[in-house]
Write a structure and sequence with these properties.
- The protein has eight helices and 28 strands.
- It has 403 residues and is of the alpha/beta class.
- The strands form eight sheets. A six-stranded mixed sheet has the order 16-13-17-21-20-18, sandwiched between helices.
- The longest helix is centred in the last third of the chain and has 19 residues.
- 37% of the residues are buried.
Length: 403
Amino acid sequence: MRSVAEHLAACLDIAQAAAPLDVVLLDAVGCVLAEDVVAQLDLPAVDMAGLDGYAVAVDDLAGVFPGRPVRLDVVDDVRAGDVRPIHLVRGSAVIIDSGAPMPQGADAVVPWTATDRGTSRVEVRARVESGANVRRRGEDVTAGTTVLPKGSRISARQIALLAGLGRHRVNVHPAPRVVIISIGNELVEPGRPRETGQVFDANGHALACAVTDAGGRAFRVAAVPDELGALRETIEDQLVRADVLITTGGLSVGQGDTVKDVLAPLGSVRFDAVAMSPGRQLGVGTVEGTPIFCLPGDPVSAQIAFETFVRPVLRQIAGWSALHRSSLPATVSAGWRSPAGKREFVPVHLTGSPTRGYRASPVAAPGTTPLLGLARANAIAVVPEDTRTVVAGDRLHCLLLDA
């Protein structure tokens, strides 16, 4: 029997980080940077108005006091994007839009609310300090600054910065394309009629979501029956678009070893009983060079196997430095017997805070695998292999599912 650590090492060994790829910005969303992004220009690139109003020289407002305004001639009107060279002469003002470049000689913006909104001559009723309502050149970013280090994940916020700096392409580790294949004669697509003895395909949908959450791009295949020809044809067809293959089900030791029989001539895949609970036989290997992970058909077992073995692999391919879920210690609310020699994964509901500590309550009887319990869990408590009895009040490390 293989240990959890041994099986995880085998999984990580067959799938290294994807080669960097130069992509347009929209294709970089969700990916991890494979380069340091260095600003090639100041941001803002010039001094800009921070709000709508009048660009002025502060020295011209020296005579402004409550009840005694200063009147200035309005000599121009500057809009955002205006590239004309504009010079402010003493004793005058320029109407200016937020985001428009400041005229030469102007060092502040008087807001509309502090004026009479004149268009040829404006009455300024309040003084402002030099630099007021002005975004200075380089105030946000200075040219030559590393704004995003290699290893950063790209989301909408980073896209805004990249686009603002004029970048339209960026070097990233591409998100792995993951094909999920559910196997079983008994599987029915949710929303369709179900006969007695049939079950809805929970794994295909759940694993596709789990892949997306891990940073991959999921492609779900309709359930395939326990039939050698159909499964072989499906796997061969999906190799064209798959960076990773995941199968679930088809590992019954009794009547049908469909997955083993199909994969034997196609690739190099090893199947082992892994010392974990819940869990059964698991497979890992390659088919024509594409990594494949064979998970159990039981939905809870499949989800826990994915979290333990496949999620870290997908993050490794995608270039993440942190491969595993965050964890924290929590006091368990109840005790139970844990299987000898196996690492047990128990779905729990975690409550508490850093100051008060955390408490973990099993959402179902440990050793059982109800879907309702997993749906109510926000963490998974991990019981070491050498622990036979868990006592209420014991502290276990819990993997955070919603972090």
